[in-house]
Specification:
heterodimer, A: alpha/beta, Barwin-like endoglucanases, 34 helices, globular, B: mainly alpha, disordered N terminus
């Protein structure tokens, strides 16, 4: 899809002030609901589906049939019971006796009694007598049924990504990338897609609490007054604030203010998987604090050293797009970049690499030193292990040939020294300023890893901390084994927690303040390139939550500061002229026009590089490397069901983490798949299930962070294994010399794919750039031997004439990184339910699109192939003929549709589907009870009932509304900007979808390519979703050897 | 006339051994068979009926659970979307076939040895169809919408989708059930009149009287009866072939390796007859022992049924052989893989067991000694009952669990609810069977009278 600015303009609306469904209504008056007059409460869902004590319905029921004195007596009794108090807590938290004053409690009970009386009177379900009013004034932009899009940004970790958020009648329902923002260019990563679910998570913390008592923000502020004024006198000596690292200019402004107003207070930045190492490496390599980001559009040869460049980190979406554009041969078949991936732990980037080499961490370090030495980096000398020396030479030659248009990237979690070396290599190749961009730093300074926590624990133990603020993150859970934050914390007389959930850290705190979700609060954040963006909310806070900036403002003495004012305050001074107008422009664009750090040029500190190179390459025995989980990150997404059920890219495991190891290591340890293993280092040990992953580096075990949570919520609790007990602040990303023993027990891991070989079936087809140019592998049937001698379009019947639209899809296998953004986008767009671990084990997951993963070749260094598979919308669809009730039929535009209302669930269609893309509701999977989840659903898509088949519809709700728009506006469809959800989310633009009758469309052009093929075409199904062969560009030098 | 028995020396029906024990007269035949109903209920009947009803309760519980929770309580999944429900459906339908074959085709072929077994074989058909017919409804995701499958006028103006073999199934099975019930009931009328006349209390007399539809045994009645039987036999005969052919289309018209096979219709029909005769033997042996009916269901019957089983069993084995041959000959990698997977894959045991039951066990029937040993015959028939269930398991599950896309391959296992539903339908079948043997003549009284030597003598004299 070319960027379509017009259509973007059309749908994007500037939002000034909060957008809320209630703001446009005259509040309807409903009897018995008088307690809910506060618009905030009206959208408060019942937080707890567990039946607790007493329910309103029960009260009503018990009141039915009672009259006279008995009625009133029982009401009084009811109002006095513990269950009643409990009910109040759950149903009307905002109405709680706020400051514990007796009068207000009494008043509340009076109100409650009155409302119950009304409820009792209305118990025989009479229609409301009061008038319910429609809009008295039609709001300007809202057309019921038509979504609006607002620009915003998703702060994830320290950095953010520019977004467009779809809003239906004031409710954000779907997140898309902002096509005009360089961090997104219309695409998103898997976390952006899933973020909307977190907003509606019924497990979120909802009300400020003090030791389990519900309080209010104002009460909190009042209680803190004495402490804060005392601390002001002490220059904040007893204040410690633990925060997640952020680039938010507003938060950093407030942190600076704290530093100047309360100079002895300390802010500790702590993240379980942050950017501290990368920041320190850049500072060391370039001699001064520097922010580094990359420009892959100019990189013809890319070498990654233990880096998941294309799918992990703030810049991944932008990098992936540039990388794919620079690689795609379907449009320009002469230019293709080349990617080498050398890694200890399998990455998505490695899957796409032309040459992938898995090496244990120490071997990888020696490899990097040898590479630097072969490239003549000053002060670096060394050689790689002999078996990979050929690789070093070949890669070095290739890099040298592409000096200035090459890129070497070390992973952010790789040792600092390795990252320094990568910078040095780039400098020596002349890549600085070309593929590597340097700017002024955007991250706050502070110790990397868990160093900050270690200092904090020292302070706590010395008893100098009077009040400890723990803002965001989950430091108690993430603290390394050698930093005993849990017991040190007890020394702080006041512990205040701000977090989205009441998590492990919250349990040990006196106060818990709910933190606002980014879709319901104002903020700002910087993108990977340092450019700032406004985080624009789409809805009023669902609960009584605040932002970290507001908490910092409170510490600075301003308890009433609104998040909106705090953000505006940051930027107002930076604009000359009309701020309101500029601000509106920024909100509309999703980008702040000022404050982007310019690129600078720096030279490498040679002595630092030489020092770094000398320390690399040691380490013996079996190493454990820690990585953020590919779907739940560092654990912050652990209560997100979409992400828990999203299969991990390499293992296709859902709902768990595990110890990934190579077949050879498993063999030598005599460990089988899914066997529990005990990994110990020193006196630390963890038990975790093993998973054997072909292609994993030998002598290395990968452990993913974020699992084993105990206070995450109903989704995340009890999933996976906590691996942090093995982490120490010194061995933050890697532990060498671990002992591993099998325990004999097995632990079932729920994978969505159990068979890993293609069995000689030509499902994923691949070729090399050379073969493509020399005609091998092309030809009439595009090289699929299954099609030799078969006319795959043969039919006795005349085909259908498509004189209107003719939908089709092509997926480019050369650029699919397997990042899963499409899978979760599909979940979000199509209201797909989650089924849970047990049902995944039963093989009943509901993903409409899946990413198949196949291994080929050698067990130790196999080639990995990915293939997104959704409904292929066969022209001769085997599912359609066997449905006895015509519930799945072909439209005259070629879409194989599902009529859910008609489906009786014989499941014959799914049996007969050779692609196995149909999904069945064996139970009532869609949650029809939790109110808050209902808010987040796409109103254009049916929520499916038990017993009904479902599958990819090519986002028929989108094609239909695009057709209507094109017709109404009398413009061609290509100007409407139709995209399927998967296509829109894809960072690499690997999916082309549209009208095949429009010869100018990308899909029509891709369909013409020689690389195009359909899977299982020999069955005569004539699929509409086809694929572009995976093309690789191997280095002839290495391909020979 | 169809039901007029032939003389014993008619070469078409000549049998070396008698089909009725010597010494019987029409009166003793009537006495002996009707006494089963008019006599005191034997104790074992109560025990047996209670056990059967216990199993039926399990069925009701399972179905209740199924309707409450959904088909997820079964072991089905992606890719094995069909499991026990379909296996059991085909199995029960197959069992029913012997009854129709015996009552219709053997009637038309004038095999009068069938007279003593056709009544309960027909009852078995109806009960088996009742069990079978339940499964397509139970296995629906939304069973409360079952009427979408019927071509009834509706406000959506939507018809069923006539290209789907499942719709053909609906027609085939309902037709089959209707014709079978009619045929059975018409055949019962003369005997119901006998029971009416012999009933010991007024209540029984009036019930049997109503069911006997005013039968008085006049010549006109007999004439009309004969015509009706002939017509119904003519109607039922194609059904023997068509019903299981249509059931096989459920598989054969799909494109799944292992299902997409042209040999399925004849192979399924033969398999049905095979399974049906096995079930008739399984039921007849204990019945004739318990009711002391060795005079009417003689060793000759058993011998003949053993032969039919052997013959149809060999056809079924031929089907297996052709399946294997075509799998190789087709050159399709999917077909080849499917066969290899059946033979060596995770469900290898069920494939081997299938061959043991349906091929090896049946070969013993070549021996006259086995065919005349009731115990041996019973064991072989039980093997076949199990074998034919396994055959459907192999067809349904091993074809589905690994088809075209290796990424979607999976495994299937019946859950406790799968088994309880299956066992429950056996309970339903047995309950109906127990009620049948208690309240209706399990052997056709008047047809037995007609094959007595006296009857043929009388007939000769008429000439």
């Amino acid at each position: 899809m070319p960027k379509d600015h017009d259509s973007f303009e059309r749908v994007t609306t500037t939002s000034e002030g909060r957008v809320t469904p209630e703001s446009s209504y005259e509040a309807p008056v409903v009897p018995g609901e008088s307690m809910k007059s506060d618009p905030k409460t009206s959208s408060v869902p019942s937080a707890d589906s567990e039946p607790v004590g007493l329910r309103v319905e029960d009260v009503r029921e018990s009141l039915v049939g009672k009259s006279g004195p008995e009625y009133w007596r029982s009401l009084d009794e009811l109002a006095g019971t513990d269950e009643f108090a409990e009910l109040i807590h759950r149903e009307f938290p905002q109405m709680l006796p706020v400051e514990g004053a007796n009068t207000s409690r009494r008043r509340f009970l009076q109100l409650m009694g009155a409302s119950l009386a009304l409820a009792g009177l209305n118990a025989c379900s009479i229609q409301p007598e009061e008038r319910m009013l429609p809009y008295t004034k039609q709001p300007e932009e809202i057309i019921p049924g038509k979504p609006l899009f607002f620009a915003s940004a998703h702060p994830h970790g320290a950095f953010g990504r520019g977004l467009l958020v779809e809003s239906h009648m004031g409710r954000p329902t779907k997140i898309e990338g902002n096509p005009d923002h360089p961090s997104s260019r219309g695409a998103t990563d898997v976390f952006d897609q899933a973020a909307v679910l977190d907003l509606y998570d019924p497990d979120r913390a909802q009300i400020p609490q003090e030791r389990g008592t519900l309080r209010s923000w104002n009460g909190f502020a009042g209680d803190l007054q004495n402490l804060l004024s005392a601390q002001r006198g002490l220059q904040g000596e007893g204040l410690r604030i633990v925060m997640e690292t952020t680039t938010s200019p507003t938060v950093l402004r407030l942190v600076d203010r704290i530093a100047s107003e309360l100079p002895k207070a300390q802010v500790v930045w702590f993240d379980p998987a942050g950017h501290g190492l990368a920041r320190d490496a850049a500072a060391a390599a370039f001699g001064a604090p520097t922010h580094v980001h990359y420009d892959l559009s100019a990189a013809d040869v890319v070498v990654t050293l233990d880096s998941d460049l294309l799918t992990e980190g703030p810049g991944a979406v932008a990098y992936a797009r540039d990388f794919a554009d620079n690689r795609r041969v379907v449009e320009d078949d002469h230019h293709m970049n080349r990617l080498y991936a050398v890694e200890s732990s399998p990455t998505n980037t490695g899957v796409l690499a032309d040459h992938r080499l898995s090496l244990a961490p120490a071997r990888l370090e020696r490899f990097a030193v040898a590479l630097a030495s072969a490239l003549g980096v000053d002060g670096v000398n060394g050689s790689a292990d002999s078996d990979v020396q050929a690789w070093v030479q070949a890669i070095a030659r290739d890099l040298r040939a592409h000096a200035g248009s090459s890129l070497v990237v070390a992973g952010e979690n790789a040792p600092r020294e390795l990252q320094i070396l990568a910078h040095a290599i780039n400098a020596s190749l002349g890549n600085l300023g070309r593929t590597v961009r340097l700017t002024a730093p955007v991250l706050p300074e502070g110790p990397a890893g868990a160093e900050g926590l270690r200092t904090l624990v020292g302070d706590l133990e010395r008893g100098v901390v009077d009040a400890l603020f723990l803002v965001g993150g989950n430091p108690l859970f993430d603290a390394p084994a050698d930093v005993d934050l849990a017991s040190a914390m007890e020394r702080a007389p006041l512990r205040i927690r701000m977090s989205t959930y009441e998590d492990e850290t919250s349990l040990d705190c006196h106060w818990h303040i709910p933190m606002s979700h980014f879709l319901e609060s104002w903020g700002d954040v910087r993108a990977f390139d340092g450019s700032p963006m406004v985080v624009q909310p789409l809805i009023q806070p669902l609960y009584e939550s605040r932002t970290p900036a507001q908490l910092l403002a409170l510490i600075l003495g301003d308890a009433a500061a609104s998040d909106y004012d705090l953000v505006q305050e940051t930027w107002r001074t930076q604009v000359s002229g009309n701020f309101t107008r500029t601000w509106r422009r920024w909100l509309h664009d999703g980008a702040i026009g000022v404050g982007t750090p310019g690129t600078i040029l720096r030279s490498v500190d040679t002595s630092a590089v030489a020092r770094a190179a000398r320390t690399l390459g040691s380490g013996t025995g079996t190493s454990v490397v820690f990585r953020p989980d590919p779907t739940i990150g560092d654990g912050r997404w652990s209560n997100n069901a979409w992400l828990q059920e999203c299969p991990k890219p390499h293992t296709r495991i859902t709902w768990d983490n595990c110890a990934l190891m190579s077949p050879r290591l498993a063999e030598s340890l005599d460990v089988s798949n899914e066997e529990m293993v005990r990994i110990s280092a020193g006196d630390r040990q963890i038990d975790v299930a093993a998973w054997i992953l072909p292609g994993h580096a030998d002598d290395t075990i990968t452990l993913h962070l974020g699992y084993g949570r105990t206070s995450s919520g109903r989704i995340g609790d009890g999933c996976g294994f906590d691996v942090t007990p093995l982490r120490t602040s010194d061995d933050w990303w890697r532990v060498d010399d671990v002992r591993v023993e099998g325990l004999g027990r097995t632990y079932r891991l729920a994978t969505t794919q159990t068979h890993h070989s293609m069995e000689g079936r030509h499902l994923v087809q691949h070729t090399t750039l050379d073969d493509m140019h020399h005609g091998h592998g092309d030809g009439e049937h595009h090289g699929n031997p299954m099609h030799h001698g078969i006319d795959i379009d043969a039919s006795l019947m005349p085909g259908h004439e498509y004189d209107g639209y003719k939908w089709g899809m092509v997926v480019d296998l050369s650029s699919c990184t397997g990042c899963n953004a499409c899978v979760v986008a599909c979940h979000s767009e199509n209201n797909i339910a989650i089924v849970g671990k047990n049902e995944v084990l039963n093989g009943r997951e509901l993903h409409w699109m899946r990413i198949d993963r196949y291994f080929e070749g050698d067990l130790d260094q196999p080639a990995t192939y990915l293939q997104p598979v959704m409904c292929q919308h066969c022209e001769q669809a085997p599912c359609e003929v066997v449905c006895p009730v015509a519930a799945t039929v072909h439209t005259d535009e070629g879409i194989n549709t599902m009529a859910y209302n008609r489906c009786v669930g014989t499941r014959y269609c799914a049996n007969n589907c050779p692609y196995k893309v149909r999904r069945f509701n064996f139970y009532q999977y869609a949650d029809q009870k939790t109110e808050s989840l209902k808010l987040g659903r796409n109103p254009d898509v049916t929520v499916r009932h038990r017993g009904v088949m479902e599958k990819c519809t090519y986002c028929i709700q989108r094609t239909q509304s695009a057709k209507i728009e094109a017709t109404v506006k009398e413009i061609p469809l290509s100007e409407v900007g139709l995209q399927s959800a998967c296509q829109q989310a894809c960072p690499t633009g690997a999916i082309a979808f549209g009208d095949m009758n429009d010869s100018q469309s990308k899909v029509a052009q891709w369909k013409e390519s020689n690389l195009e093929y359909g899977i299982l075409q020999e069955l005569g199904t004539r699929p509409r979703t086809t694929y572009l062969k995976r093309v690789s560009n191997p280095n002839p030098e290495l391909a020979r050897s | 006339m169809a039901n007029v028995p032939f003389s014993d020396d008619d070469p078409r029906t000549r049998l070396k051994s008698p089909i009725v024990a010597p010494g019987h007269t029409p009166a003793t035949v009537t006495d002996k068979i009707s006494t089963v109903i008019t006599a005191e209920t034997p104790k074992w009947w109560f025990l047996g009926a209670a056990a059967a009803f216990g199993l039926l309760s399990i069925f009701l519980l399972s179905v209740g659970m199924l309707f409450y929770k959904g088909v997820g309580i079964w072991g089905i999944n992606n890719p094995v979307y069909w499991g026990f429900a379909i296996i059991n459906f085909v199995w029960w339908i197959g069992i029913g076939h012997a009854g129709t074959l015996i009552s219709a085709i053997l009637l038309l072929l004038r095999q009068n040895w069938r007279n003593s077994i056709n009544r309960f074989a027909e009852a078995m058909t109806i009960f088996a169809v009742a069990c079978a017919g339940m499964f397509p409804l139970l296995h629906l995701g939304r069973p409360w919408r079952f009427y979408y499958l019927l071509p009834i006028p509706n406000t959506f103006e939507l018809w069923p989708q006539f290209r789907s073999p499942l719709i053909w199934d609906v027609f085939a099975v309902t037709t089959y059930a209707l014709v079978s019930i009619l045929f059975w009931y018409v055949g019962l009328i003369p005997d119901l009149a006998t029971l009416r006349d012999r009933a010991k209390n007024k209540f029984a007399a009036s019930i049997y009287g109503i069911l006997a539809a005013g039968w008085r045994g006049s010549t006109k009645h007999w004439h009309q009866y004969e015509v009706a039987s002939m017509l119904l036999a003519g109607l039922a005969t194609p059904l023997v072939v068509s019903v299981h052919t249509v059931v096989s289309f459920d598989f054969a018209t799909s494109q799944l390796p292992g299902w997409h096979t042209t040999i399925f219709p004849p192979y399924f029909v033969a398999g049905a007859v095979f399974a049906g005769f096995a079930m008739v033997i399984t039921l007849a042996l204990p019945l004739r022992y318990l009711f002391n009916l060795q005079d009417f269901i003689t060793d000759t019957h058993m011998d003949l049924m053993g032969k039919v089983m052997l013959a149809t069993g060999l056809i079924v084995v031929y089907g297996y052989a052709i399946e294997i041959f075509i799998g190789w000959y087709s050159g399709s990698p999917y077909e080849r893989y499917m066969l290899l997977n059946r033979m060596t894959g995770p469900y290898q045991a069920s494939y081997i067991a299938l061959f043991v039951c349906n091929f090896v066990a049946v070969q013993f029937l070549w021996s006259k000694r086995v065919r005349s040993s009731m115990l041996a015959l019973f064991i072989v028939s039980m093997f076949v009952n199990v074998g034919m269930w396994l055959e459907r398991f192999v067809i349904v599950v091993t074809s589905l669990h690994r088809d075209f896309m290796p990424s979607s391959w999976g495994m299937y296992q019946g859950t406790i609810w799968d088994w309880s539903t299956f066992v429950g339908t056996i309970g339903l079948f047995l309950t109906l069977m127990f009620l049948f043997i208690r309240f209706l003549p399990m052997i056709s009284i008047f047809e037995m009278r007609m094959i007595l030597p006296e009857a043929s003598k009388a007939k000769k004299e008429k000439h």
